[in-house]
Amino acid sequence: MSNGILEIWHRSLHTGMSHYINASHTNWDVVVPFYLMAYRATPNTVTNFSPFSLLYGREMQSSNSDNLKTRVSRENPDHQQRLENIRASLNASYNYVNK
Known about the structure:
It contains 4 helices and no strands. It has 2 domains: 1-30, no CATH class; 42-60 and 78-99. With 99 residues, it is mainly alpha-helical.
C-alpha cells in the first residue's frame, strides 16, 4: 500500500500475463520476456513515447515476415552522424516529456 507506482506496475503485469499463462501456471517464466518486450515497445499514454524509445532514441524493431531477411549494408555508415541523430532524438523526447 505504500508504493502506488509499483502496485500499478504489478497490476499491469498480472493482467497482461494472465491471458497467456497456462492453467497449471507452469509457463510464466517463458511468457515474461515476451510481455516485457511488448510493454517496452508500447507508447505510454502520458508521454506518447515507448520506454524503449526514451532509452535508445529510436523505436524498437520487431520481427515480421518483411524484415526477417538478412540485410547486409555495402556502405560504411557515418557513425558520427548516426550518434548526432540519436542525441537529437533523445533530447527532443526528453524535452517533450519534461513539458
